[in-house]
Amino acid sequence: KLFFTDYGNAAKVERCDMDGMNRTWIVDSKIEQPTALALDLINKYVYWVDIYLDTVEVVDYQGRRRHTIIKGRQVRHLCGLAVFENYIYIVNSDNLSILRINRFNSTDVQFLARLDNAKEIRVYHKRAQTAVRSHACEVDPYGMPGGCSHICLLSSNYKARTCRCRTGFVLGSDGRSCK
């Protein structure tokens, strides 16, 4: 799945398949300007920052079990968000600081560092990734992902895929080759 925020005409958090199909709103109320977004891949939760409401909130992949992690002056001007183990890590663009907040006990907030021009944060660790199973976009014996000549996108599940072409090319009638 692909998860994303939108604060155009109607602010929302959405998800869709990697090929853009099955687009679904998972949060569309009590939300104003959702910006940074992070996933807990293990427990299947979506965290986001709302810079208008000064909140960090969480919801499960289906849009249920929503609650606020932290709210108020302490989390103003946030622009980056990452989740790892018991903590969320946030970039404050006003004072260029990195904060660590216990996602289960929001009173545990720690200043970690100050960085010039920090806008985003990511955690890279083996435990932050789920195990990868074989999928429809694996490279075939000819070196083509999922048998697609240009781009392979996972579809509704890991066994289904959609082929797409780079700009200027058109997908052939076989649904795999680009011309």
From TrEMBL:
| GO aspect biological process, one term | canonical Wnt signaling pathway
InterPro entries membership: 6-blade_b-propeller_TolB-like (IPR011042), Cueball_EGF_LRP_Nidogen (IPR050778), LDLR_classB_rpt (IPR000033)
Q: Where do the LDL-receptor class B repeat units fall?
A: 1-43, 44-87
GO cellular component entries: plasma membrane
Molecular function terms from GO: Wnt receptor activity; Wnt-protein binding
Positions of transmembrane segments? none
Q: Which PANTHER family does the record cross-reference, listed alphabetically?
A: EGF-LIKE DOMAIN-CONTAINING PROTEIN, VITELLOGENIN RECEPTOR-LIKE PROTEIN-RELATED-RELATED
Q: What is this protein called?
A: LRP1B protein
Origin species, per record, is: Heliornis fulica
Q: Which gene encodes it?
A: Lrp1b_1
